[in-house]
From TrEMBL:
Location of the Mechanosensitive ion channel MscS domain: 101-170
Pfam family, one: MS_channel_2nd
InterPro entries: LSM_dom_sf (IPR010920), MscS_archaea/bacteria_type (IPR045275), MscS_beta-dom_sf (IPR023408), MscS_channel_2nd (IPR006685), MscS_channel_C_sf (IPR011066)
Membrane topology classification: Multi-pass membrane protein
GO MF, any single term: mechanosensitive monoatomic ion channel activity
Localization of this protein: Cell membrane
SUPFAM superfamilies linked to this entry: Mechanosensitive channel protein MscS (YggB), C-terminal domain, Sm-like ribonucleoproteins
Keywords, sorted A to Z: Cell membrane, Membrane, Transmembrane, Transmembrane helix
Membrane-spanning ranges: 20-37, 57-75, 81-101
Name of this chain's protein: Mechanosensitive ion channel MscS domain-containing protein
Organism of this sequence: Candidatus Methanomassiliicoccus intestinalis
Keyword Translocase: no
Keyword Zinc: no
GO cellular component: plasma membrane
Amino acid sequence: MSWYDEVVYGSITIRELLTFIFSIILIYAIARFAFYIIRKELSKKTSRNSAIQNARIFEYIIIAMGIYIATWVVLRMDFSAMLLSLSFLGVTIAFAVREFFANAVAGIIIALTKQVEVDDWVQISGIPDTGMCIVREITVVNTVLEDRDKRTIYIPNGYLFRNKTINYSKRKAVAVEMNFKVAVLEDFDRFADIVYEEAEKYPYTMPDAVGKKAQKNNRLLGFTFFQSFTDEEVDKDNYDPQIEILSVDSSGISLMIRIWIRRPAKSETAMTDMYISLTKRFKDEGVEIV
């Protein structure tokens, strides 16, 4: 009797355990290969996001079926019994397997609900906060993000599923806020007109525009032909530039200007551009900035 025929647990031998581990690796490799083939073929007939999401579901199904079959054929035990036995093999192994399946299940839910998709701009709360990142890939256990500094961040699917996630791409608009302090504001309407005019000039803003820009904004906000037959509409006024008075004292009036940008990835650039543009316009119009 050779060493690999020795029993390690119950009736499971070392040979069977090694065969099972090799089977799992092979199943994962086959699933990944199937994912790339299916994604490639679907990309010819549908959008990139849809192709990735559908191919991911097939990948999860292959992995789940493969693990079940390997457990039943190689280890000669049912899947539930295997999970139960893991608790006796060691806390470390059990915890690792539990985390793997928890992340895999979370990945399936994310793929089916489409709460996060490839190329979405998201921000995931937690320690540390990721900041605004773009989703590059959703794998079996991880979601791969890329931040604005081009750093790659791997987030376990279970972590993403449990924590608050802000998806800027679902509405495709994000607010940019700028604070100004003016010495005196004799004509508030004229001040508001300046803000509206400068916002209208910027290519990524969301005010009531005309022509091609209005058509693009309407598509982003969900205005469709079918909505004309219903009472439910998105209030476009919510995306107009807003001006709020924060405080008034002897030195002047503190104001907050909020402008909606339809390209979340451009929010920081938009803030800089709009601040420079507004500052120059205020100076030309004789508005004294404190």
